[in-house]
Design brief:
Layout: E1 2-8, H1 9-19, E2 24-25, H2 33-49, E3 53-57, H3 66-70, H4 83-103, E4 106-108, H5 115-125, E5 130-135, E6 149-153, E7 162-164, H6 166-173, H7 180-187, H8 202-212, H9 215-220, H10 227-235, H11 237-247, H12 270-279, H13 282-287, E8 303-304
Parallel strand pairs: 1-3, 1-5, 3-4, 5-6
Antiparallel strand pairs: 2-8, 6-7
Keywords: DNA-binding, Hydrolase, Nuclease
Organism: candidate division WWE3 bacterium
GO molecular function: 5'-3' exonuclease activity; 5'-flap endonuclease activity; DNA binding
Length: 305
């Protein structure tokens, strides 16, 4: 069976940016911490999952995606990077593109849609053709877990990485992956400024989803629900259905792709080696099995100021 790994690129790069210090630079002074971290994590992923196919999902280049049209305050509460961090981050995006091109890794995007929607569209579009592993720290993507797709949550800080299938998700959440949108419609999601129903917390949302299954069915049976909760549901009905729409990942975004175009041939090719040598990524060359100097300090081209 073919194995397709789908990477939430911006999420992955953001993690890498904060995992390594901005003092990590090339010999000509280019900050390269995010690209270094991205490449390092990608090497580990490839070793762990041995994908036959791989793709990186990108965000739309349009300033406004369809969710912002529905809800202008979507993601409005996110804390922006400092000007210095933003400049350092953006300066590395072309370098990431250079690395992905050298590695022969396909990038996919759909204008007006988010990377989550691209991942959802590819996961559904390749069902029955490949086993899919979705890589991100954005748990919204767990709604895509099914018999063909699993979700890999990379380690953060001292935490452990975890691979979620249907069983692991059910054990943690108490309901099936497809019901995540119903839960978030009630609970909301502060990280994306999704309102949910005011006054409905995790326990109540979980209980309602386990008992009634869907948001529509919850409202259909609102007279059977405890009066205090029913009142909150009635007051927050519009927000609940708006929230459900916002958190639902699109699985039919306008996107042209073929599984064969996502074939992955490995990272240890001459173009990647040349880039790593140019940027001074000696330890990463070691991880690829190209250099015997793995573990030594990267002093020649990569420096810590």
């Amino acid at each position: 069976m073919k194995r397709l790994v789908l990477i939430d690129t911006a999420n992955f790069l953001h993690r890498a940016f904060y995992a390594f210090p901005m003092q990590l630079t090339t010999s000509d002074g280019q900050i390269i911490n995010a690209v270094y971290g991205f490449a390092s994590m990608l090497i580990s992923l490839v070793k762990e999952f041995e994908p036959t196919h791989l793709a990186c999902a990108l965000e739309s280049e349009k300033e406004i995606v369809f969710r912002e049209i529905e809800f202008p305050d979507y993601k409005a509460t996110r804390v922006p990077k400092s000007p210095e961090e933003q400049a350092a981050y953006e300066s590395q995006i072309p370098l990431l593109g250079e690395f992905l091109e050298a590695a022969g890794i396909k990038t996919l995007k759909s204008e007006g849609y988010e990377a989550d929607d691209v991942i959802g569209t590819v996961a559904v579009g390749t069902k029955g053709k490949a086993e899919t592993i979705i890589v991100s720290n954005d748990r919204d993507l767990t709604q895509l877990i099914d018999g063909a797709s699993r979700f890999y949550l990379p380690a953060v800080g001292k935490g452990k990485a975890k691979l979620y299938g249907k069983k692991e998700f059910l054990e943690e959440y108490g309901f099936t992956p497809g019901k995540l949108v119903e839960y978030k419609a009630l609970r909301g999601d502060p990280s994306d400024n999704i309102p949910g129903v005011r006054g409905i917390g995790d326990k109540t949302a979980t209980k309602l989803v386990k008992e009634y299954g869907t948001l529509r069915n919850i409202y259909k049976n609102i007279l059977d629900i405890a009066p205090a909760v029913a009142e909150k549901l009635a007051d927050g009905k519009d927000d609940a259905f708006l929230s459900r729409k916002l958190v639902t990942i699109v699985t039919d975004a306008p996107l042209e792709f073929e599984l064969k175009d996502l074939e992955f041939k490995g990272l240890d090719n001459p173009k990647v080696v040349e880039l790593f040598e140019k940027w001074g990524f000696k330890s990463l060359l070691g991880k690829l099995g190209v250099s015997q100097e793995e573990g030594k300090e990267e002093k020649s081209q990569l420096k810590l100021l």
